[in-house]
Amino acid sequence: MSVMALSAAIVLAAGEGTRMRSNKPKVLHTFAGKTFLNRVMDSVAALEPDTLAVVVHFQAERVSEAARSYNEHVAIVNQDDIPGTGRAVQCAMAQLADQGQLNGPVLIAASDMPLLDSRTLRELVDFHSASGNGATVLTTILDDPTGYGRIIRDREGNVLRIVEQKDANRSELAVQEVNTSVYVFDAALLVQAIADLKSNNAQGEFYLTDALETARSAGKVGAFTAPDPLTVEGVNDRVQLSALSKTYNRRVCEHWMREGVTILDPETTWIEDDVQIGRDATILPGCFLQGHTVIGQDAVVGPYTTLIDAVIDDGATVERSRVQESHIGARTNIGPWTYLRPGNEFGEDAKAGAFVEMKKAHIGNGTKVPHLSYIGDAQLGEHTNIGGGTITANYDGVHKNRTVIGAGCHVGAGNLFVAPVEVGDNVTTGAGSVVRHAVPSDTMVYSENTQHNVEGWKPAWER
Ligand code: UD1
Ligand code: MG
């Protein structure tokens, strides 16, 4: 499908989002792992407008910073103190006109529709150009249209105007077709249509919706109904945020189930957009799969597991654990209750067990760290076993230092490796060893800790 080139796209992000009752602007709230702003910018940018503008006002610094860090080419428009979606577009068009003549269609989108997708936008722009409209509004039909602007049509079905909830009479309130706050205008017509907006309405604001009625006198005005109502659902408060998140997550889970993933309880399994899951993987209840996590075939994840940018290879298991930016090799078992901070690299058939914390640890094939350990800034060779309660003392108060332990080692329980320290292959260490100096291969090491028995001892309360 071809899309007529957009001369500009304007994202409206100047509002506070009062109904969120938040210290941060609504557009910086997250939906399935990405902010509202990033989501709408993503969808709009996919249409490759000549200019992508974001209108800011409430916490302008914070919002423009977020917009710029997401896309450095974005044009930031500062809306003045005059409120309203119409004013936002007036400010944007004034700034864009300063930068050069605008020709062709301009897309306008509010930023509180987290599921607005580029496909719907493309269809809207295509419809706009095919119908020869000067202005097209994206609409949807809702069982409960409360709160939205209503689309008012004449008897022939032509779009006449949009009336806001607070300005509508009884028969207008009964209309179920609503404005989504996404529009395409031809640039010249838009300039004309916003020139004389008035604020004589219930909210005392310059409504962009009024521009549609004005546009009618100078061009053809139409409406395009979003094929999938979910894509244009707006979020104004946290109740809607939760409801939409749940509906969307259900869809994501159903997608993966249809791809051959067993998800025992989609109600408690939260999967973000960029996650990949292999066939015959099983996701047990209470899991959060986030970021660019990749799960291999036949892997079992959960219950109660959080994976953030984790790579879990085929047949691995992760139970009741948190894994961040780490690679778990095939058939390796993690958990229960394992905490993997960023930078761990596991080979195949390895293990990290209960109450084990790791950070920047490289664990060789078949190597096991089964119980109660901290392994940080360390490298463990293949087929080594680490006794319970072993700690790598990697921090001397200034620097993080490395511990290297070779292949085929048997580390006794309760060992302390004071880094930097290096241990060769096939080394056995005694229980409670404190290893401060290098140990060559094929060596047994133990450190003195003299046991003293004081016989006939009575505890204080008996004395
Ligand atoms: C708006 C529409 C309404 C539509 C609804 C869809 C108007 C007058 N009303 O109402 O017809 O059904 O969206 O969700 O346009 N914004 C600015 N500057 C401002 C005010 C708002 O940039 O001065 C931005 C907001 O950040 C937001 C968008 O415009 O992204 C919409 O504002 P919001 O206050 O949510 O409008 P609604 O009351 O939802
Ligand atoms: Mg809104």
From TrEMBL:
Its EC number is 2.7.7.23, 2.3.1.157. Residues 1-238 are annotated as: Pyrophosphorylase. It holds the Pfam family Hexapep. Its cofactor is Mg(2+). Acetyl-CoA binds at residues 394-395, 431. Binds 1 Mg(2+) ion per subunit. Mg(2+) binds at residues 112, 236. UDP-N-acetyl-alpha-D-glucosamine binds at residues 12-15, 26, 79, 84-85, 149, 164, 179, 236, 341, 359, 374, 385. The active site is at 371 (proton acceptor). It is an enzyme of class 2 (transferase). GO terms for molecular function: glucosamine-1-phosphate N-acetyltransferase activity; magnesium ion binding; UDP-N-acetylglucosamine diphosphorylase activity. Catalyzes the last two sequential reactions in the de novo biosynthetic pathway for UDP-N-acetylglucosamine (UDP-GlcNAc). The C-terminal domain catalyzes the transfer of acetyl group from acetyl coenzyme A to glucosamine-1-phosphate (GlcN-1-P) to produce N-acetylglucosamine-1-phosphate (GlcNAc-1-P), which is converted into UDP-GlcNAc by the transfer of uridine 5-monophosphate (from uridine 5-triphosphate), a reaction catalyzed by the N-terminal domain. This is Bifunctional protein GlmU. It comes from Bifidobacterium olomucense.
